[in-house]
Amino acid sequence: MQTTKTAPESTAPDLPAAPAVSLATRLRRALRGAPLPAVAFLALVLGVALLADLIVPHDPLTGDLRAYSLPPAWKAGGSVSYFLGTDLLGRDILSRIIMGARISLIVAAASIALGGVLGTVLGLLAGHFGGWIDEVIMRLVDTQLSLPSLLVALVALVVFGSSFTVLVILIGVWLWPNYARIVRGETLRIRRYDYISLARIAGCSTWRILFVHELPGIYNTLIVMATLQAGWVILLEGSLSYLGVGVPPPTPSWGSMIAEGRGDLASAWWISMFPGLAMLATVLSLNLLGDWLRRTLDPKQVNQ
Amino acid sequence: MSAMTADVPVLEFRNASKHFALSRDRVVRALDGIDLVLEAGQTIGVVGESGCGKTTLSKLALMLQRPTGGEVLFRDMEVGAFGREDWRRFRTSVQAVFQDPWSSLNPRMRVIDIIAEPLVASSSMPRVEREARAARLMDDVGLPRAFLSRFPHELSGGQRQRVAIARALSIEPRLIVLDEPVSSLDVSIRSQVINLLKDLQEQRGYGYLLIGHDLATVAYISHRIAVMYLGRIVEINTSAELISDPKHPYTQGLLAAHLADHPAQRGRNVPLGGEVPSPLSPPPGCHFHTRCPKAMEICSRVEPMSISSGAGLVACHLYGQAG
Q: Which helix (H) or strand (E) holds A71?
């Protein structure tokens, strides 16, 4: 056997270092094609929710009974001080919407964090180990999905009393099966890559394979899911509050505000209308952002 | 397998089989009674068409799967008897390079972390030392150190395969399983990578189990070659003898497909026709008789035994009568 030896040549020359890119340029690149009005509106909602205590023009919890049921400022009889009008107890609608933004976002974030972590861990275990672990977890998912969740939530809230914690746990438990299913499927896909076998050959622990090799491949999917679900959870919290089992009064949430105005839609439509619009705009923005993220976070384009 | 040296072989298959039961009466015999010995610092090539069990062989060698019959031994030790410390020793002695460089590197890790991972997983080497080692490995495989901070998608196929090799070398293994390491690369890159592997072996004495379907490439780097057909080894011999004097009609057929460049050989071997039968229902007797140009009546009834021929073994009835 003849051997003509050729030294292994470097297959590519050293490339010059990438030119320094300013922060502004990088931000602009990252946001290319983003739904800017949606992003701007969400930033506004987030800022308002964070600073709610500082920027509310009136106390959102106690009203001025002399100024009850005032229409918005631009209607006859409205007052500039109560820009979006007042409710039947004389509380400022704008202040309550601002405070409600905080409540709605916290409920959404906390319950998605709970359901997301629970579902992700269980889905990861089901996909990675398969066998009876997979069976048990996926039957749990089926069971959860076949429950009439709204009824269960109503019963639970009546039994345990409506509190912020119970609400978050209920919504979190409501959400986890979706995460578990998606994460399991993604894990099954990623497991087939050779780098998982090679990690095992390198002696990586199961823990390391799960959380260093498999989980990061799912991050994009999780971000998209969480964004799209945030809108859905805000609606769900609204529905529960509307049914009277959401965040307990007098704490304002968008759903409970809509509920409070339902009897006076004909005479004082602004009580329900403005929180409803706030909810609509927020959920719409979250959905637009989620769709954009889904298109953008193609794994091949990450890190570029 | 006559030449047993005093050294303990790195890897040994003893009558190893791997059967997959699809249902009660449908069994795929991916591997059937494999005997194979790999001495330290040597290369054994395993060739055959797709579906012949090559990949299952590599999975058994890497202990990713257990044989359903027979034994696979690492340094004279059966995997079933592995304790915690044996597993650690195995994982720090055996590495692999796979066919598809797009699938074998985690797209979310930087090259430096990919190369250093076997060290992270099985040693307590400090970070600084690991990264220095990774940089030296880049030199060894002929990649610029600047690539250390890159992600796999920023590299070409050949560069990725070099990264995969550097990773395999990081723990100074005794055995590297090379499962079609160049088949997915451009032809112009193949010889570079093969030569790199050959040089590394000469310098550092790694043992290679090289799986391939291209006999010419495999012969170039292997000391011995095993030719597989439908889960069985039909011929095994030193590379030189196997190429110059192939005994089994299947080996002759494989060679005819590749080496028609020498005038003396032209016309001597008939290229293979037909398709590989399904491993679900392999033909009785010699699996190859349905495609064999020299098939005899006995071939469809009796499974041929391996008999020695020169430095190797061949399982074919053509030679059974003489021996």
A: none
Q: Which two tokens stand for residue B139?
A: 């030199």
The pair of structure tokens assigned to B263 is: 């005038």
Pick the CATH number of B11-93+173-320 from 3.40.50.300, 3.40.470.10, 3.30.240.20, 1.10.357.140: 3.40.50.300
Q: Which of A97, A5, A38, A60 is nearest to A230 (CA)?
A: A38
Q: What is the DSSP letter of B254?
A: H
State the CB neighbour count (10 A cutoff) for residue B36. 22
A117 has a pLDDT exceeding 90? yes
CA distance A183 to chain B (A): 17
Question: Would you say the C-alpha torsion A72, A78, A83, A87 has a positive or negative sign?
Answer: negative
Please report the residues numbered 185 through 224 in chain A whose beta carbons come closer than 8 angstroms to any beta carbon of chain B: 193-195, 197-205, 208, 213, 216-217
DSSP letters, A217-262, are GGHHHHHHHHHHHHHHHHHHHHHHHHTT-SSPTTS--HHHHHHHTG
Q: Which residue of B has its CA nearest to A208?
A: B121
Q: Provide the CATH number for the domain around residue A150.
A: 1.10.3720.10
Residue A293 Cα distances to A45, A73, A227, B114, angstroms: 19, 38, 9, 28
Query: How far does B168 lie from chain A, in Å, by closest CA?
Result: 8
Judge: A203–B92 Cβ closer than 8 Å, yes or no: yes
Q: Report chain A residues whose CB lies below 8 A from the CB of B199.
A: 5, 7-8
Residues in chain B: 323
d(CA B196, CA B206): 13
User: Into how many domains does chain A fold?
Assistant: 1
- pLDDT of B281: 80
Q: Any chain A CB within 8 A of the CB of B125?
A: no
What kind and span of H or E run contains A152?
helix A149-160
For B100-125, the pLDDT digits (tens) are: 888 999 988 999 999 999 998 887 88
The answer to whether the peptide bond before residue A35 is cis (omega within 30 degrees of 0) is no
Task: State yes or no: pLDDT of B163 exceeds 90.
Answer: yes
- pTM exceeds 0.90, yes or no: no
Mean local confidence (pLDDT), A79-90: 74
Distance from CA of A150 to the nearest CA of B (A): 40
Burial B162-183 (b: 16+ CB within 10 A, else e): bbbbbbbbbbebbbbbbbbbbe
Q: ipTM for the complex? A: 0.85
Domain ranges in chain B are: 11-93+173-320
Q: How, if at all, do strands B312-314 and B307-309 pair?
A: antiparallel
For residue A149, is pLDDT > 70? yes
Write down the pLDDT at residue A60: 74
**Assigned domain for A5 exists:** no
User: What CA–CA distances, in Å, run from A36 to A8, A24, A167, B101?
Assistant: 50, 16, 32, 38
